[in-house]
Amino acid sequence: MIVSILSKLKKTSMLMFAVLLGAVLLVTGCQSKEVETSEEIAKLRIGLVPGEDAQQIIEKYDPLAKYLERVLDLEVELIVGTDYTETIEAMRTGKLDLGMYGPFSYILAADTANAEAAILASYEDMGIYYESYIITHPESGIDKISDLKGKTFAFVDPASTAGYLIPRMYMEKEGINPDKDLASTTFLGGHDACALAVKKKQVDAASIVKHQLESAINAGLISEDDFKIIHTSDRFPGGPMAWRKDLPEDLKEKIRDAFINMPEEDISVLRTAFPKLVKFEVANDSDFDILRQSAKELNLDIKELI
Known about the structure:
Layout: H1 2-41, E1 43-48, H2 54-72, E2 75-80, H3 84-92, E3 98-100, H4 103-112, E4 115-123, E5 129-130, E6 132-136, E7 152-155, H5 161-173, H6 178-181, E8 184-187, H7 191-199, E9 205-209, H8 210-218, E10 228-232, E11 236-237, E12 241-244, H9 249-260, H10 264-270, E13 277-282, H11 289-297
Parallel strand pairs: 1-2, 1-3, 7-8, 7-9
Antiparallel strand pairs: 3-12, 4-12, 4-13, 5-11, 6-9, 6-10
Helix pairs in contact: 3-4, 5-11
């Protein structure tokens, strides 16, 4: 009888201990999760892809960072990658929360870095769309894409839509294989660098996106006498702002609302760096299927570009 009672007491004690231990682990787990979540959203880390000088990029996006800090009540850190792939890799490893991608670099990030399209900027003359130019200096003797054969050419970056994918596509449609038919090709890392290379006659021709050419002109880096446009692409969707899919849903909603409902006075401040900016719109991953198809037509393996 005594043994039976002791056995029951022992079992009861073990059960109570197990319940207690479980409660402690649950509380500890919750505390760890709270700390982890708190650390994750204490600072919003925004990655910016290189399109021009890094300091100029920081200055352009600084008003946006200040706006987001005010609206989201979070510290915002702007991080400029040395190239497109570094920005993609930073999001893949969880070092970025929001990325300002080009269209093609977004496709790479969506495929490999857990990125999800969130926001698109809409402009007065183009809406959410971009155009890619091929430019040359006026004395080059180049008037059309077929004239590029045997010439030197500067692309922006292997992961740039307007600076590589689109112009390459049009070259191939005209029977020019950039890897074989051009005298040489180079990647300069920025749209402004391509404009300057044409101006200085360091290359015969180069690719550049419309709004970056306009920015280079407005900044005095190049004048309309320094270049001529020999080809304008069809319009394609612009680069989205994309967040990590695993960001807290409430934070995603706050970020989306901050852009979509941005007051006119804050948009007007951004226009000093982004002329003709009208508003921001919700982006969807399917918006970029047309570019995925373009890559497929060019037999480009997206993963090989990283």
